[in-house]
Amino acid sequence: MTRPDGPLVDSHFHVYTADMPLTETAWHRPDHDASVETCLATLDAHGVTFGVISAASLFGTYNDYVRRALCRHKRLRGTAIVDPAWDLDQLERLRDDGFVGLRFLWRPLERTPDLGSESYRRLLRRCADLGWHIHLTDRPERIDTTIRAIEAAGVRVVLDHIGLIDTAAGVDDAGFRAVLAAVERGRTWVKLSAGFRFTQPGLADRCAAALVAAGGWERLVWASDWPFAGFEGQVSYADAIAALHHWVPDAAMRHAIGGRTPLQLYFT
Protein backbone atom coordinates (compact mmCIF):
# COMPACT_ATOMS: atom_id res chain seq x y z
CA MET A 1 0.00 0.00 0.00
CA THR A 2 1.43 3.37 -1.03
CA ARG A 3 1.62 5.99 1.70
CA PRO A 4 0.33 9.49 0.89
CA ASP A 5 3.26 11.82 0.29
CA GLY A 6 1.70 14.95 1.76
CA PRO A 7 1.48 15.79 5.46
CA LEU A 8 -1.49 14.45 7.41
CA VAL A 9 -1.19 16.90 10.32
CA ASP A 10 -0.45 20.63 10.32
CA SER A 11 1.03 21.24 13.77
CA HIS A 12 0.98 25.05 13.87
CA PHE A 13 -1.33 27.63 12.36
CA HIS A 14 -3.49 30.48 13.62
CA VAL A 15 -7.16 31.34 13.31
CA TYR A 16 -8.63 34.72 14.19
CA THR A 17 -10.87 37.52 13.06
CA ALA A 18 -9.70 41.07 12.50
CA ASP A 19 -12.05 42.43 15.16
CA MET A 20 -10.70 40.31 18.01
CA PRO A 21 -9.21 42.27 20.95
CA LEU A 22 -5.47 42.80 20.55
CA THR A 23 -3.05 43.07 23.45
CA GLU A 24 -1.33 46.39 24.10
CA THR A 25 1.97 44.87 22.92
CA ALA A 26 0.65 43.22 19.73
CA TRP A 27 3.41 43.25 17.09
CA HIS A 28 1.03 42.82 14.16
CA ARG A 29 -2.46 44.06 13.38
CA PRO A 30 -4.26 41.75 10.94
CA ASP A 31 -6.44 43.62 8.46
CA HIS A 32 -8.46 40.58 7.40
CA ASP A 33 -9.97 37.47 8.94
CA ALA A 34 -8.11 34.17 9.11
CA SER A 35 -11.26 32.28 9.97
CA VAL A 36 -11.42 28.66 10.98
CA GLU A 37 -13.64 28.01 7.95
CA THR A 38 -11.03 29.44 5.57
CA CYS A 39 -8.30 27.54 7.36
CA LEU A 40 -10.09 24.20 7.12
CA ALA A 41 -10.82 24.80 3.44
CA THR A 42 -7.09 25.44 2.93
CA LEU A 43 -6.13 22.25 4.77
CA ASP A 44 -8.68 20.25 2.77
CA ALA A 45 -7.42 21.66 -0.53
CA HIS A 46 -3.94 20.33 0.30
CA GLY A 47 -5.00 16.95 1.70
CA VAL A 48 -4.24 17.79 5.33
CA THR A 49 -6.68 16.08 7.68
CA PHE A 50 -5.78 17.20 11.21
CA GLY A 51 -4.50 20.45 12.65
CA VAL A 52 -3.21 22.17 15.78
CA ILE A 53 -4.19 25.79 16.33
CA SER A 54 -1.39 27.79 17.90
CA ALA A 55 -2.31 30.45 20.42
CA ALA A 56 -1.48 33.83 18.88
CA SER A 57 0.37 36.27 21.10
CA LEU A 58 -1.54 39.11 19.44
CA PHE A 59 -4.62 38.22 21.49
CA GLY A 60 -3.08 37.17 24.79
CA THR A 61 -5.40 35.14 27.00
CA TYR A 62 -8.37 35.68 24.68
CA ASN A 63 -8.72 32.02 23.72
CA ASP A 64 -12.45 32.24 23.00
CA TYR A 65 -12.38 31.97 19.20
CA VAL A 66 -9.97 29.04 19.24
CA ARG A 67 -12.04 27.35 21.92
CA ARG A 68 -15.20 27.56 19.84
CA ALA A 69 -13.31 26.20 16.83
CA LEU A 70 -12.07 23.21 18.81
CA CYS A 71 -15.55 22.46 20.13
CA ARG A 72 -17.00 22.47 16.60
CA HIS A 73 -14.23 20.63 14.80
CA LYS A 74 -12.90 17.49 16.47
CA ARG A 75 -10.13 17.18 13.87
CA LEU A 76 -8.44 20.13 15.60
CA ARG A 77 -6.40 20.59 18.76
CA GLY A 78 -4.97 23.81 20.19
CA THR A 79 -2.62 25.56 22.56
CA ALA A 80 -3.68 28.37 24.86
CA ILE A 81 -2.14 31.39 26.53
CA VAL A 82 -3.27 31.62 30.15
CA ASP A 83 -2.67 33.60 33.29
CA PRO A 84 -0.64 31.52 35.78
CA ALA A 85 -3.29 32.34 38.38
CA TRP A 86 -5.98 30.38 36.51
CA ASP A 87 -7.18 27.48 38.64
CA LEU A 88 -7.39 23.78 37.84
CA ASP A 89 -11.08 23.94 36.89
CA GLN A 90 -10.34 26.52 34.20
CA LEU A 91 -7.50 24.43 32.78
CA GLU A 92 -9.53 21.22 32.86
CA ARG A 93 -12.31 22.90 30.89
CA LEU A 94 -9.73 23.91 28.27
CA ARG A 95 -8.47 20.33 28.12
CA ASP A 96 -12.00 18.97 27.72
CA ASP A 97 -12.57 21.34 24.81
CA GLY A 98 -9.47 20.16 22.92
CA PHE A 99 -6.51 22.16 24.22
CA VAL A 100 -3.34 20.09 24.55
CA GLY A 101 -0.80 22.60 25.83
CA LEU A 102 0.12 26.12 26.85
CA ARG A 103 2.12 28.60 24.84
CA PHE A 104 5.03 30.51 26.36
CA LEU A 105 5.93 33.02 23.66
CA TRP A 106 8.88 34.53 25.45
CA ARG A 107 11.24 35.44 22.62
CA PRO A 108 10.05 39.07 22.47
CA LEU A 109 10.44 39.54 26.24
CA GLU A 110 13.46 41.32 27.69
CA ARG A 111 12.81 39.49 30.93
CA THR A 112 10.98 36.20 31.21
CA PRO A 113 8.74 35.11 34.06
CA ASP A 114 10.36 33.13 36.85
CA LEU A 115 9.61 29.43 36.32
CA GLY A 116 10.77 28.85 39.90
CA SER A 117 8.07 31.11 41.33
CA GLU A 118 5.16 29.58 43.19
CA SER A 119 2.64 30.45 40.48
CA TYR A 120 4.70 28.91 37.67
CA ARG A 121 5.68 25.82 39.67
CA ARG A 122 1.97 25.26 40.28
CA LEU A 123 1.10 25.89 36.61
CA LEU A 124 3.78 23.48 35.36
CA ARG A 125 2.65 20.79 37.79
CA ARG A 126 -0.88 21.14 36.45
CA CYS A 127 0.44 20.87 32.90
CA ALA A 128 2.21 17.65 33.84
CA ASP A 129 -0.92 16.28 35.52
CA LEU A 130 -3.05 17.16 32.48
CA GLY A 131 -0.56 15.55 30.08
CA TRP A 132 0.03 18.89 28.35
CA HIS A 133 3.16 20.28 26.74
CA ILE A 134 4.65 23.77 26.77
CA HIS A 135 4.74 25.34 23.32
CA LEU A 136 7.85 27.50 23.65
CA THR A 137 9.61 30.31 21.82
CA ASP A 138 12.58 31.89 23.59
CA ARG A 139 15.83 33.71 22.92
CA PRO A 140 19.05 31.82 22.12
CA GLU A 141 20.92 32.90 25.24
CA ARG A 142 18.31 31.55 27.65
CA ILE A 143 16.54 28.77 25.76
CA ASP A 144 18.64 26.05 27.39
CA THR A 145 17.75 27.23 30.89
CA THR A 146 14.06 27.51 30.00
CA ILE A 147 13.85 24.08 28.40
CA ARG A 148 15.63 22.41 31.30
CA ALA A 149 13.35 24.07 33.86
CA ILE A 150 10.25 22.88 32.01
CA GLU A 151 11.67 19.37 31.62
CA ALA A 152 12.55 19.27 35.32
CA ALA A 153 8.89 19.94 36.10
CA GLY A 154 7.95 16.80 34.16
CA VAL A 155 6.48 18.65 31.18
CA ARG A 156 7.24 18.08 27.50
CA VAL A 157 8.45 20.95 25.30
CA VAL A 158 7.56 21.77 21.70
CA LEU A 159 9.67 24.46 20.00
CA ASP A 160 8.49 26.66 17.16
CA HIS A 161 9.99 27.25 13.74
CA ILE A 162 13.12 25.07 13.61
CA GLY A 163 14.07 26.52 17.01
CA LEU A 164 14.34 30.02 15.48
CA ILE A 165 17.91 30.50 16.68
CA ASP A 166 18.40 33.20 14.07
CA THR A 167 21.95 34.34 14.83
CA ALA A 168 25.20 34.80 12.92
CA ALA A 169 26.60 31.70 14.66
CA GLY A 170 23.65 29.69 13.37
CA VAL A 171 24.00 25.93 13.92
CA ASP A 172 27.09 26.61 16.04
CA ASP A 173 25.19 28.92 18.40
CA ALA A 174 25.05 27.59 21.96
CA GLY A 175 21.27 28.04 21.85
CA PHE A 176 20.89 25.78 18.84
CA ARG A 177 23.23 23.23 20.35
CA ALA A 178 20.98 23.30 23.41
CA VAL A 179 17.98 22.57 21.17
CA LEU A 180 19.77 19.56 19.65
CA ALA A 181 20.70 18.34 23.13
CA ALA A 182 17.08 18.67 24.28
CA VAL A 183 15.91 16.66 21.27
CA GLU A 184 18.41 13.95 22.19
CA ARG A 185 17.12 13.86 25.79
CA GLY A 186 13.74 12.83 24.38
CA ARG A 187 11.35 15.32 26.01
CA THR A 188 11.53 18.07 23.38
CA TRP A 189 10.01 18.22 19.90
CA VAL A 190 10.68 20.84 17.20
CA LYS A 191 8.44 22.12 14.41
CA LEU A 192 9.82 22.20 10.89
CA SER A 193 8.10 25.40 9.90
CA ALA A 194 8.43 29.05 8.92
CA GLY A 195 11.89 29.06 7.43
CA PHE A 196 10.86 32.38 5.89
CA ARG A 197 11.08 34.00 9.34
CA PHE A 198 14.87 33.55 9.48
CA THR A 199 16.91 36.61 8.52
CA GLN A 200 20.27 34.83 8.15
CA PRO A 201 20.51 33.55 4.54
CA GLY A 202 20.38 29.77 4.26
CA LEU A 203 20.28 29.26 8.02
CA ALA A 204 16.80 27.70 8.13
CA ASP A 205 17.98 24.97 5.76
CA ARG A 206 21.11 24.29 7.81
CA CYS A 207 19.20 24.15 11.08
CA ALA A 208 16.56 21.90 9.55
CA ALA A 209 19.24 19.53 8.26
CA ALA A 210 20.82 19.29 11.72
CA LEU A 211 17.45 18.61 13.33
CA VAL A 212 16.52 15.97 10.76
CA ALA A 213 19.80 14.21 11.50
CA ALA A 214 19.18 14.42 15.26
CA GLY A 215 15.48 13.61 15.58
CA GLY A 216 13.79 13.17 12.23
CA TRP A 217 11.93 9.98 13.05
CA GLU A 218 10.57 10.75 16.51
CA ARG A 219 11.06 14.38 17.58
CA LEU A 220 10.04 16.53 14.61
CA VAL A 221 6.64 17.65 13.35
CA TRP A 222 5.70 19.76 10.33
CA ALA A 223 3.70 22.98 10.35
CA SER A 224 2.62 25.64 7.88
CA ASP A 225 2.37 28.74 10.14
CA TRP A 226 -0.71 29.77 8.11
CA PRO A 227 -1.81 32.55 7.52
CA PHE A 228 1.86 33.65 7.62
CA ALA A 229 1.38 36.70 9.86
CA GLY A 230 3.60 39.54 8.74
CA PHE A 231 4.29 37.72 5.46
CA GLU A 232 0.77 37.64 4.04
CA GLY A 233 0.90 37.42 0.26
CA GLN A 234 4.56 36.40 0.27
CA VAL A 235 4.18 32.75 1.32
CA SER A 236 1.60 30.17 0.29
CA TYR A 237 0.41 26.93 1.84
CA ALA A 238 1.93 25.06 -1.09
CA ASP A 239 5.26 26.74 -0.28
CA ALA A 240 5.07 25.39 3.27
CA ILE A 241 4.51 21.83 2.02
CA ALA A 242 7.32 22.25 -0.53
CA ALA A 243 9.64 23.26 2.31
CA LEU A 244 8.91 19.96 4.07
CA HIS A 245 9.90 18.04 0.92
CA HIS A 246 13.06 20.14 0.62
CA TRP A 247 14.09 19.61 4.24
CA VAL A 248 13.11 15.93 4.39
CA PRO A 249 13.80 14.21 1.05
CA ASP A 250 13.16 10.74 2.46
CA ALA A 251 9.47 9.90 1.93
CA ALA A 252 9.22 7.52 4.88
CA MET A 253 10.65 10.11 7.26
CA ARG A 254 8.29 12.74 5.85
CA HIS A 255 5.42 10.37 6.62
CA ALA A 256 6.58 10.21 10.24
CA ILE A 257 7.11 13.96 10.59
CA GLY A 258 3.88 14.87 8.84
CA GLY A 259 1.73 12.13 10.34
CA ARG A 260 2.74 9.53 12.89
CA THR A 261 4.72 11.76 15.26
CA PRO A 262 2.22 14.64 15.50
CA LEU A 263 -0.68 12.21 15.84
CA GLN A 264 1.04 10.64 18.84
CA LEU A 265 2.03 14.00 20.29
CA TYR A 266 -1.25 15.87 19.91
CA PHE A 267 -4.06 13.38 19.37
CA THR A 268 -3.43 10.52 21.81
Helical segment tally?
A: 9
How many domains? The number is 1
Strand content: 5-15%
CATH class: Alpha Beta
Distance between the termini: 24 Å
> What is the helix fraction of residues, given as a range?
25-40%
Low-confidence spans: pLDDT under 50, at least 5 residues?
A: none
CATH architecture: Alpha-Beta Barrel
Order of strands across the main sheet: 1-2-3-4-5-6-7-8
Structural class: alpha/beta
Beta-strand segment tally: 8
Major sheet size, sense and barrel closure: 8 strands, parallel
Q: Helix-strand pattern, N to C? A: EHEHEHEHEHEHEHEHH
Q: Could you tell me the radius of gyration in angstroms?
A: 17 Å
The CATH topology turns out to be TIM Barrel
Average pLDDT number: 94
User: Which descriptor suits the 3D outline?
Assistant: globular
CATH homology group: Metal-dependent hydrolases
Protein name: Amidohydrolase family protein
Keywords: Hydrolase
Domain Amidohydrolase-related: 9-267
GO molecular function: hydrolase activity
How would you sum up this structure, described in words?
The protein is of the alpha/beta class and 268 residues long. The chain has a single domain, classed as TIM Barrel, CATH 3.20.20. Helices cover 39% and strands 14% of the residues. An eight-stranded parallel sheet has the order 1-2-3-4-5-6-7-8, sandwiched between helices. The mean pLDDT is 94.
Compact description:
It contains nine helices and eight strands. With 268 residues, it is of the alpha/beta class.
